[in-house]
Amino acid sequence: MGDIASGLIFLVFALLTVFSAYLVVSSKNIVHSALFLALTFVGVAALYVLMNADFLAAVQLLVYGGAVAIMIVFGVMLTLRSGNAQNSNLDSRNALAGAIVSLLTFATLGLVVFTTEPWRKTVDLSATGTTTGDISWLMLTKYVVPFEVAAVLLLVAMVGAIILAKGVNDSK
């Protein structure tokens, strides 16, 4: 009974994730697309929880949830000048090229998955313990400079978006 229930829960979250990802690219309103993207990231985090990867699920929600919030701010600031956000996400005129690239990507991934050695490895989780402490130690010691650089880069991007949204006043 437990295997059937976990399979059904996985199926529900997988379908939610795929359907919301489809709505991201098919929605004409950029704000709706960003909200569907947030739903997609929540679905991926739920799939991480089902795989017993709680740390990845938390990072997924915190990092990508924050990214979607920033993207909504950028989208509102940069597209609502005309007052109509309905046509801010136009239809693609390259649907055939996108379909061809998608099929080639799917075929390549299928070829890699089905022609390689067995890639599923079982790990004894009782012997490994948790990696959260190891990851946090690396983030706060060895890789602290790249995280600070990324923070400064995001700050510069936010200031640039605010300046672009405000517009330049030629009062000279």
Tell me the β content.
Answer: under 5%
Mean pLDDT: 78
Separation, N- and C-terminal Cα atoms? 75 Å
Q: How does the major sheet shape up?
A: none
| CATH superfamily label of the largest domain | NADH-ubiquinone/plastoquinone oxidoreductase chain 6, subunit NuoJ
Q: Count the DSSP helices.
A: 7
CATH class of the largest domain: Mainly Alpha
Q: SSE order in H/E notation?
A: HHHHHHH
**Alpha-beta classification:** mainly alpha
Which regions contain 5 or more consecutive residues with pLDDT less than 50? Answer: none
Helical residues, percent: over 70%
**Got a strand count?**
0
Number of domains: 2
Overall morphology: globular
In CATH terms, what is the fold-level topology of the largest domain? Four Helix Bundle (Hemerythrin (Met), subunit A)
Radius of gyration, rounded? Answer: 21 Å
What is the CATH-assigned architecture of the largest domain? Up-down Bundle
Structural write-up:
By secondary structure, this protein is mostly helical. It has 2 domains: 1-92, NADH-ubiquinone/plastoquinone oxidoreductase chain 6, subunit NuoJ (Four Helix Bundle (Hemerythrin (Met), subunit A), Up-down Bundle); 130-172. It is built from 7 helices and no strands. Helix 3 (54-79) runs parallel beside helix 7. The model has no long low-confidence stretch (mean pLDDT 78).
